User: Fold this.
Amino acid sequence: MTVIGKNVLSQIRTANLRPKPRWFFQLRESGLWLILVLALVTIALMISLFWFFASETDLSLMMWLTGRPFFYGRGPGTLLLVIFFVAIFLVWNFRNTRRGYRYNLGLIALIFICISAALAGIFGYLNFNKRLDHGLMNMPFYESRQQYMIAVWQQPSEGRITGEIVAASGSSSFVLRDFSGVKWQVSSAMAVWRHNMVPEIGLQVKIIGSDQGGGNFLASYIRPFMPMMDGCGLGNKSFGQGSCGMMN
Amino acid sequence: MIANEQCSNLTDEDLVIKTLADQEFYYCLVVRYEQALKRYVSRITNVGDEEVEDILQNVFLKAYLNLNDFDPSLKFSSWLYRIAHNEVVSNHRKRLSRHVGETLPLDDWLGLSSGHSLENELDLTLTREQLAKILSLLDKKYQEVLILKYIEEKDYLEISDILQKPMGTIATLMNRAKKQFKTLAKKHEIKF
Assistant:
């Protein structure tokens, strides 16, 4: 009998050791795969939400106006960070599955990107991203697209204001109350109205122009604030007759 | 106690199944792999015989406790070598945390049973001492793949299972290991 063999068997007998049960390993492997699927779904949801953010917040206009990347905002920035860390966790998790080590990391990443993109497309098609955006609106870490847009658009010194029309007199001027409650006398005689809208009480708009001082604003371009998933504008206030859901 | 003769005709997988029913059969598996693993552990670590035996005991105990985790689609030897590799890494970390210096005793390498395939592969003419010396000078990650391939005579799939790396990575490591081996051989003026 070899010394090592004798010692090993003696320890097994003395401590009455038994192999860990098979279910323990099966449970661990199933847990890894479950976490993997959940991580994949999370990434797909985040991508669809990110895409929703991008498509609903005047992406190109914002980049041009602010001169900084779209993901500068807290909402999109948080989404990107979540996607990044969950993706790292996903690949690490896969490597820890029974056969995960056999596959090339690049290939794994590519497959996960394709699956996430496909799932994100499905989630977008089913409007899960809109529902998620709506659901996350009151979460402290989450800046909804409305808040993000208000933050970007409510900058009079930069020539941008946004809010709700509270009084209108023809198409040449109206009174706008911004989302912080400040009232603006907007001169819109020279402004281009997106979708040929007309000023109407309750209509939510965003305006590009210049701050004339004393609460006066000279508008050069006016567009609806944003389409909503149900009803129109913040608090279900209308963009105008027949304009609900109109894309800006 | 199970006599070794009783299990000489059984495959590793048969012995695993028998061990799960009767722990005494585990002795056969220990005996079957003891020498090979001792040689492997000695070559990838720079520790004395006693520590090698401690490592081996831990390897066999861990293997026993995790016997139900053995995947029959892999080779049992690959699975066991992987546990040994992990135990060596773990032991190495413990030694580092204890600041135990590591020097490779050349004598430990001189028990190399076969390095001829490596010499042929690299078209080198080496004495065992030279082979041992160069292997000992290689980076750890290169040293281990060369040992597994040319001394333990494992194929790429087995090495991939032991080191838990993709086969492509193993091939890359192997190429780099050979290059480093040749460079070191040149540096030490070994005849080509």
